[in-house]
Amino acid sequence: MSDPAVPTAFASAFAPALASTFGELFPNGVSRYAIGGLFVGLGAAVIYFGTGIIAGASTFLESSLSYVSKLPRFNRPKYLASRDWRVVFTLGIIGGAGLYAVFFQGGIWTTDVQWWRLLFGGVLVGIGTRVGKGCTSGHGVCGTGSVSQTSIVNVLTFMIFAIATAQLVQALGVAP
Questions:
Q1: Where are the beta strands (DSSP E) in 32-174?
Q2: Model's pTM, two decimal places?
Q3: 167 partner at 20 to 30 Å CA-CA among 2, 16, 80, 117?
Q4: pLDDT digit of tens for each residue in the chain (176 aa)?
Q5: Are 80 and 66 a contacting pair, CB within 8 Å?
Q6: Cβ distance 56 to 137 under 8 Å?
Q7: Alpha carbons 46 and 50: distance in angstroms, whole number
Q8: Dihedral angle at the C-alpha atoms of 34, 38, 41, 46, nearest 10 degrees?
């Protein structure tokens, strides 16, 4: 039989360290992240159950390009049939972030990162979504939620490279 005091002793020994680390990682609490996560998950579920389509942002962008491109890649029948609501969805993502920034963060531009670095980073992310055959929303939210082994491997790869890049940039002393 195990001693019931062992879990209590363990918790009392590690709880202050865990609370301190948790407080440093989330100085404003976790409620806003939990609420945002619930909305993202709910949105992905509604789209999937309503249309049978996995809500990955890179596919939404690719289908939207069918309005301006004649390339067969962007004019697949499944894209043409669903591009109208996909554009509304994509604009909702951008508009929602913009509204949040204006109303809760005091302005649309809330970063000290230079615009050209954001642009270059966005280009690299775009290349990564093609190489990885999807984006973090498709693989991370929908793919891992459906226990796709490919998505789990992709998300682990995203995270490893993101952490390594962040550590390298910090070690090099690169500032915004």
A1: none
A2: 0.62
A3: 16
A4: 555 555 566 656 666 666 666 677 777 788 888 888 888 888 888 888 888 877 777 777 777 788 888 888 888 887 788 788 778 877 888 888 888 888 888 887 777 888 898 889 888 887 877 777 777 777 888 888 888 898 899 889 888 988 898 899 889 988 76
A5: yes
A6: yes
A7: 6
A8: -170
